[in-house]
Amino acid sequence: MSFMVPNEKINAADAMPQMDNARSSALNEIRNVTDAMLCADNDKTKLSVNPRPMMSSCNVQTDMSMLREQSTNTMIISGRKDVRKSMMLRISQIIWPWKNKKPSNKTDVVGVAVSAPVSHRTSNITLSGNTISDKRTDGMILTPTLRIFSFEEVNTATRNFSEDSVLKEGGFGKLYKGWIHENSSSKKRSGSVVAIKKLNHESTQEFKQWQSEVNFLGRLSHPNLVKLLGYGWEDEVLFLVYECMPCGTLADHLYKLARKSNDFYPLSWRQRLKICIGVGRALDYLHAGHGIIHLNVKASNIVLDEKFGAKLSDFSLAVNGSGSESQSQDSTNLIGTFGCTDPNYLKTRKPTLKSDTYSFGVVLLEVLCGRQAVEPWNDEDKCSLTTWAIDNISSGQVDDIVAPSLRGEISPDSLKTFVKVAETCLHDEPKKRPSTAHVITKLELALQQQEKAESLPPNERTSVREVLSPTDKSQKEKINFMVASEKTNVADIVSPSLGGQMLPQPSVRSFTFSELKAATRNFRSEAVLGVGGFGVVYKGWINVKCSGKDGSETPIAVKKLNSGSTQGFDEWQSEIEFLGRISHPNLVKLLGYCLEDKELILVYEFMPKGSLDNHLFRSRQPLPWDIRLKILIGAARGMAFLHASEGQVIYRDFKPSNILLDESYHAKLSDFGLAKMGPTDGHSHVTTQIMGTYGYAAPEYVATGHLYVKSDVYGFGVVLVEMLTGLRALDTRRPAGQHNLVDWMKPHLSKKKKLQHVIDKHLVGTYPAKSAAQLAQLAFKCLENEPRNRPSMQEVVQTLETIADRPAQRRVHFSH
After folding, report:
1. How many whole angstroms separate alpha carbon 436 and alpha carbon 12?
2. Which of 291, 354, 370, 815 could form a disulfide with 122 if both were Cys (CB 3.0 to 4.6 A apart)?
């Protein structure tokens, strides 16, 4: 069916006898609309329109082309043309629900309206029964800035709603990533990346939620609210089109990605505070500005843009509320999310603005603890985050609830302020909970306290030369730690047999921000290659000049780091210090950097095959056995090169997402943000803050903070097991006892009969049994609990090369 009123005639007089009350109301409203079209007044001047007969005896006919232009209108109706378009749009909204809905016993909802049982007026907006109105538009619900999308448009945008395009799945349906083309005379073949929510219209509830999103987000605008671009429908399918938020949800970065061990970099405390402040501002805008209760504030409904700016989404349960407790809404059907919803609301079924405050308090605890509001697989006393956290806070054990990745990072003053405001948000009595404005003030104070406690921010350092070539001895030791000492020459640092070299000074280009902005087309979302706690990686193009002549454009990868913390600067600096001085076929090449104002950017060679993570866990074309060995050998050579020196480099973050592949599947290690110089003066290890990725970090490092060169070997062993099984290091979706891959698989690695039952099913019949057994044995050795019992990376390289050079053997055939 068409998204607009079909270009056909509907005889209202003939239809009237068969209509129920809802449809009669619809026709009455159509009559009112057409009457308004005849007598609409603009600046006291009557509109001259063709006369129409009254609704009882007329045919309603709508020009589709006129309705399609409705998206260009403004909120304030002005002029004959705009009034006519707006009236036509309203007719389409009235007709669609009852004209196209199949006969049923359910009551039809006429027009685009939000469900709420009582009346309430806030400023220009009035909520009455099942109709939401705005007196500025003569009582009609108009969203002229929203575009009406056809089913064909969204179907094409999502490649026929391909499973590969799914961003998120929930009770509402599925959220897809798509590309909407916007061809115009000025911009040919332009477009934008969007998020498309597809709802199944199986009941009136889904329809009401769809209506609610359109009604609220269609008329609200705030930097911390996700932008609704448009909507549409087709038979029983409803869909909404939003701006795409490339960094996913807050829930992803707090706990979901950690469980999957997928490109997971924990958010810094400053990042978390800024996200919370953004959410607070969104709620304050809803509460103080419009008296709207969101009713579903939770981490998965807080989405993040490319700079990790927070935006509140999902208004499917939102209702118009009140600033006073005595005038709260009554809603017997609206229920939010278990563990995040105000207990007082669940008890009374009367939501207030303070219901959102409670839910925001739960989010604050999730941010601090790095845990989900409800974790059914946890110990019984830790099942409810609020109960567990508040008990610890009350007993003075605040440090016990802080997320492991944040321990040692939060200043005491900032922590005290944050915990206090979270605790007051969760007060049992709604009246004693603070306003959102008060919460914002306290969160901003916590951020100021954290910034004061930290060292000088990166923008205090005025030049790249000062950063890369400091004169102060302590800074030189911190920054220039890869330069050989007087007693160590280049030959000592790098082994020629490993095919690499050390440069005396960073050999990288300094890019201007404008150059990189042009290369990535203003850092557009469709250029995003990957996202992590470090920031966002974009694909770009630069012109390479050779011998005084213009060369062809070369693809590059541009990593734009979050500059909001000292940690972000340290990782940026570390990348330059390591990759700027090291050259090896199995290390990704750093082409340059940019430091302007607060922008921290790194430029790398572009790796067309992406990461090993994509091919091993996401691709529909599994990697063959020989390619897996080739990748492992390349990655091992890169790590052996780092280790083979007196000034050993500990990589500290070996995992599939950091192994990049060129067009021939040659492996190159990337991301040296966590790399650290190894032990000196006869020590066996260095002691440092625990950083890295859960599931790959060596047990001795996680337990004690002691980092050995062979801690990297453990991480390599984890990846070996992933290569053998095709399974992720951590996955809580697996049955109990199988969440941690190493713990589950280690007993199978030394027994051939058990091994064949856990080999990646995609390799069935294609791998040599003896080679697989040898690879499993190597993994077992790499995963030894004692670091000294693990092989060196040079020994790992030799073993892998021996396995790869072995003549073709019998291929294993069996069924799982």
Report:
1. 50
2. 291
46 is in an annotated binding site: no
User: Side chain identity at 813, as an amino acid letter?
Assistant: H
Of 38-52, 427-441, 446-460, which range is least confident? 38-52
- Report DSSP state, residue 472: S
Q: Does residue 256 contact residue 281 with C-beta atoms inside 8 Å?
A: no
Q: What does the domain layout of the chain look like in residue ranges? A: 10-111, 143-244, 245-454, 464-605, 612-805
pLDDT tens, 624-663? 999 999 999 999 999 999 998 656 889 999 999 999 999 9
**Structure token digits, residue 32:** 């009112």
The catalytically annotated residue of 263, 342, 613, 653 is: 653
Tokens for 420? Answer: 């206090």
Q: What is the pTM of this model?
A: 0.48
Q: Are 319 and 293 in contact (CB under 8 A)?
A: yes
The verdict on domain 143-244 having CATH code 3.30.200.20 is yes
* Rounded CA separation 808/66 (Å): 70
H/E element, 199? strand 191-200
Q: What is the spatial distance between Cα 483 and Cα 156, in angstroms, rounded to a whole number?
A: 54
| DSSP helix/strand/coil, 670 | coil
* CATH code of the domain occupying 464-605: 3.30.200.20
Contacts of 664 (CB under 8 A, 6+ apart): none
Asked if 653 is an active-site residue, the reply is yes
- E strands, 49-172, in order: 59-60, 120-122, 125-128, 131-134, 147-148, 166-170
User: What CATH architecture is 612-805?
Assistant: Orthogonal Bundle (1.10)
Read off the tokens for 43. Answer: 């600046």
DSSP sequence for 312-350: E---TT-EE--SSGGG----SS----TTTS-HHHHHH--
Provide the terminal-to-terminal Cα distance of the chain, rounded to the nearest Å.
Answer: 47
Model confidence at 189: pLDDT above 70: no
Which CATH number is 245-454's, of 1.25.40.10, 1.10.4160.10, 3.40.50.1820, 1.10.510.10? Answer: 1.10.510.10
What residues have CB less than 8 Å from 800, skipping those under 6 apart?
Answer: 629, 632, 633, 636, 775, 778
- pLDDT tens digits for range 749-769: 988 788 888 899 888 888 898
The pLDDT confidence band at residue 671, using thresholds 50, 70 and 90, is confident
Q: Residue range 464-487: average pLDDT?
A: 30
Nearest Cα residue to 219 out of 302, 81, 154, 124 = 124
Q: Do domains 245-454 and 612-805 have the same CATH topology?
A: yes
